[in-house]
Write a structure and sequence with these properties.
Layout: H1 4-25, H2 31-34, E1 58-59, E2 64-65, E3 69-72, E4 78-80, E5 85-90, E6 99-104, E7 110-116, E8 143-144, E9 149-152, E10 165-171, E11 177-178, H3 181-186, E12 213-218, E13 227-232, E14 240-244, E15 249-253, E16 264-269, E17 278-283, E18 290-295, E19 300-305, E20 315-320, E21 329-334, E22 341-345, E23 351-356, E24 366-373, E25 376-383, E26 390-395, E27 400-405, E28 415-420, E29 429-434, E30 440-444, E31 450-455, E32 465-470, E33 473-478, E34 488-490
Length: about 500
Amino acid sequence: MKSKNFETNTKILTIFVISSVLFSFFPVMTEAQTASEVRPITFPVIGSVTYWDDFGAPRDGGARQHEGNDLMGRKMLPLVAAVDGTVRRVAYPEADFGFSITLQDKDGYTYHYLHVNNDNPGTDDGKGGGMNAYAIDVDNGNKVVAGQLIGWMGDSGNAETTQAHLHFEIRRPDRTPISPYGSLKAAKKITTPVIRPQQPNEVLPFGEFNGGGFISAGNVDADLSNELVVGAGPGGGPHVRVMEKDGTPISSFFPYAVGFRGGVDVAIADIEGDGKAEIITAPHSGGGPHVKIFDLAGREIGGFMAYDGRFTGGVNIAAADMDGDGGDEIITAPGKGGGPHVRVFKQTGQEIVSFFAYDPGFRGGIDVAAYSSGSEAYIATAPGNGGGPHVKVFNNIGITISQFMSYDPNHLGGSRITFAQTNNSQRPEVVTVPLLGGSHIKLFDFEGNTLDNDFGFEEWWPGSWDIAAADSDVFVSVGPKSGRRTSVKQSNID
């Protein structure tokens, strides 16, 4: 018969052996890593998930430890910001560990979302790209608010063979990981994402309206700074707003019947050469080619038909002094369905120059830009959707002086174009952004050499966009049919 002391000693030995095995299997976490700490967060997933405190569990055969919690769910569950803060890192292109997002709060704590979705919906193809990984405005340096949609659950990177899940980490300002479990258990849960915040470098001329907009830039009030003019895109009323670069309103008016919903292209001009700005407008689509001229207060002072009155494909417009008389002329180009017919008009509607920028059979529409300084005057064009990225620069009477490809020749999404003056040279620079297919802004000299480039918005977003410049200020705007609110940002190109 075994003694009680023997049984007790045997149990102690057994516990010691088991503990030794466990500690050899689960590497010991430091005190800082195992300390209990609860952060005030919003639960990072909307929808049903299961999770447990697997922080510290072995990975790679015990070579490392799990530094977060896995929230098991299904693909495309919405991921939301756990805190108010800043986007510190967005993995793009996809990293070895998949798509991921890092947020930082005001206290310096960081929140890491790993294995964000990389598939097209309903597949496991790994070809979903940034559009199926990240939500709007989730880009490096942008602000977020707790509960804002930031992406979708997936199985990207080294989670491809697992159930879709979010690997969620919390790290202290010194990057020490802490268990998220207590914070997740105490987290506020929501069922619908909150509206994303306005970014510091963002103007929202029409609030949450998502029909896009068309922009022009210039000094409209003779102060020391350039201003913006924005026309609402398709789906909104024909609303034109004039504002400071920071969005402070100056004036607002409707150039066409309030029921018109085709969008309004805009340009800034000094028609009289008296130092006072006029606003030029044209229907973007669905209306006749009726170009109108307004003073800064929105009073109509002129107008004419740029093309046959039956053409409803819209008109793109620009303005500059083409004949050296001190007043700006109005330059027009047809939208989709019209031939590439560039025309230059006096404010009375008198045509002074006319030419075809591309093959007359092209019907994709073209964008147009104009520039003048002293005796120099130029017109630039770029094809619309369906045309290659073929930029052409003409002198004031329509003779080609330069041409180049602004993007890969296979890009057929069209381009928007403007002139800028960033380096005090006699000639301006040409600035382009794809009409569709990314937000890659590029600055060129007349020979087609790239001088600078920038992504005005997330580089994976497919568009559409508009662009404008005045002196060295370059602005990019969300265009029509983009599915996101009309936003204008100043580019970092210089």
